[in-house]
Every structure is written in structure tokens, then in C-alpha cells.
């Protein structure tokens, strides 16, 4: 997928520093809908196009993380399928986890990209070197972002972000 708009030099400079790409799940890696079966089982839908670029970013040496407020075996399974090593679930206050991960990986916050879509993501978006969101993120979230995908959550937004970061590699 081509980037959603022409990227100016200040954005390219931010992208060139990225070493960690982190995502929220509901509304970012999924469209935000949660399906419940008759027995109370919960299901989420992930897009294969997002997965392709996330895997590609991993093969190019980027650290990948998921930080989500909900807990789901589907998130564990999807993260394992994509080779995402850093998975944090059931996290209501995401900022301390994000800061600890950066410290563990010896990465400055300016070397991170984070994609979120709702108010719980704002503290990380304010720390990230490249703050992003899907096109259908909450309006208050968009105000905290450097860049907004032209795609909705779960429908190509993560793919567009990874493609953009990979295209900025020198």
C-alpha cells in the first residue's frame, strides 16, 4: 500500500530513527468489533495484509510490541503467528509498560512508533517519536498524532504504518 500522503522531511527524519513499532489491538489491529458466541466465547478478526507488513518489519530488525487493555487468547495467537515478542495484555495504564520496554530494549522514546485509537493510548502517543492512529480513531487521539493512516483500524492501518517506516529506511 502506498503511503497516504506525501511525507515531508520532518516526518522522514522521525521515521529514520524508529527501532520499535508498537500497537494497540482493538481498533488498530482489529476493526474494534468483538464477537461473542452462544457459549460466551469471544472472537476478534485480524487482517492478513496488516500481518504481512508486520512480519516484514520484524525481518528487517524492528522490535515489535502489542500493548492492549483487554486480554485475549486470540491476541496471544496472533502475536505468536507474527513473531511479536513483546505482548502486554490487560494493561489499563500503558505508559509505564511502554517506558519499561524502551528501557529494556535500550531504545529512546524518540526511536519508537506507536499506533493507538482511543484515550488509553494518548499517554504513549505523547511519548512516542512517531505517534500514529487509524483513520477512524477518536478525534481526541488524532490531536496527539504526527500522522494519521488513510485506513481504518483492522483494515490496513498497521500495514500502511509498517510500509511507511520500511520505505523511509535509507
SSE diagram, text form:
Layout: H1 9-16, E1 20-23, E2 35-36, E3 42-43, H2 48-59, E4 63-67, H3 73-82, E5 86-88, H4 94-105, E6 112-115, H5 122-127, E7 130-133, H6 139-142, E8 147-148, H7 157-167
Parallel strand pairs: 1-4, 1-6, 4-5, 6-7, 7-8
Antiparallel strand pairs: 2-3
Describe, in plain words, how this protein is organized in 3D.
This protein has 170 residues and is α/β, with parallel strands linked by helices. It has 7 helices and 8 strands, in the order αβββαβαβαβαβαβα. The protein has one domain: Rossmann fold (3-Layer(aba) Sandwich). Helices cover 37% and strands 15% of the residues. Strands 5-4-1-6-7-8 form a 6-stranded parallel sheet, sandwiched between helices. It has a two-stranded antiparallel ribbon with strand order 2-3. Strand 4 (63-67), helix 3 and strand 5 (86-88) form a beta-alpha-beta unit.
- The CATH topology label is Rossmann fold
Mean pLDDT, as a whole number? 92
CATH architecture: 3-Layer(aba) Sandwich
Radius of gyration: 15 Å
Q: Helix content range of the residues, please?
A: 25-40%
Individual helix count: 7
The largest pleated sheet is described as: 6 strands, parallel
Poorly predicted runs of 5 or more residues = 1-5
Which sequence of strands runs across the widest sheet?
5-4-1-6-7-8
